[in-house]
What we know:
Helix content: 40-55%
CATH superfamily: Thiamin diphosphate (ThDP)-binding fold, Pyr/PP domains
Distance between the termini: 52 Å
Radius of gyration: 19 Å
Number of helices: 11
Number of domains: 1
Order of helices and strands: HHEHHHEHEEEHEHEHHH
Structural class: alpha/beta
CATH topology: Rossmann fold
Bound molecules: thiamine diphosphate
Low-confidence stretches: none
Shape: globular
Amino acid sequence: MDYKQLGLTKQELVEMYRMMRLIRVFEENAIAYFKQGIVIGNMHMYIGEEAVATGVCKALTKEDYIASNHRCDGHLIAKGADINAMMAELMGKENGICGGRAGKMHQSAPEVGLLSANGIVGASQTLGTGHALYCSLFAPGRVSVAFFGDGGSNQGAFHESMNMAAVWKLPVIFVCENNHYAISTNVNTATAMGSFYQRAAAYGVPGVRVNGNNAIEVYAAAKQAVERARRGEGPSFIECDTYRLRGHHEGDEQTYRTREEIDEVIKNNDCINNMKKLLVAEFGWSEEEDAAMIKSIEDQVAAAVQFGIEGEPMKVEDMESNLYAE
Ligand SMILES: Cc1ncc(C[n+]2csc(CCOP(=O)(O)OP(=O)(O)O)c2C)c(N)n1
């Protein structure tokens, strides 16, 4: 389906384009401040995969739930989380989204439906299924999305979650972000058939594979899945064929792939360029408009960095607060 069939306006496309750029600039800044020791902790970037979060979250409302993993920045930003508080979190500050206690991969933002991201590969499927059980029992009409990787799709939790969600017709959308690698393991060396969407049929769940670097394709699949879930017809599975442009973590030497492989994606299938090309072709999007958008995003992220820098560092004596109920 193209953008016209989906009823997307120019303004909506520009907003999606801006969202992808915002996620990227946020993360590029996080990397720059990580290298200076101002952002701390483990850094697993989402750069290259922005179309997935953008396309999926466009089909959601603020009240819907998302379950995320170690690459949660993109999901959080696309769901509408406060980027000032996120940047402060990465710096371990009291004004961070979790008071500086969560760092990069354990962030939560219940106000936008993310109860907690986490680093256990495969856990987001089970959490997303649990959120969907809550929706079906107590909040009918709301849906839940589970984001996970190709590596996470080879965990037992994948099958247990899909089976339970299908049996109970839970309103959950399983979104596999197939970025071709689980740390250094290429998907083709660890996964029979090299793809996942066919597995959905084993649970009687609709499964599709889309170009995960095309936000419109992702949105089209997500919209259909969300509508099905809201109607009470149960789960769907979307495999987004995407690509991680940074290492598994910052500092990864990436000896398992070539520079040419990465450059090929940047040149021919980068999600931001894909959307820009469409805007240029359909609406005459100009370089001036592009530069103005980039400048406004850089200013927005610079303000987030400043907010983080000005925050008070988390205090060691407060480290155990919020661990146990009062
Ligand atoms: C249960 C579990 N096993 C192993 C790890 C170590 N680990 C961290 S990230 C990762 C790879 C995850 O790959 P994938 O699910 O494809 O997500 P990606 O990192 O590519 O986004 C592994 C094996 C972990 N965190 N949790």
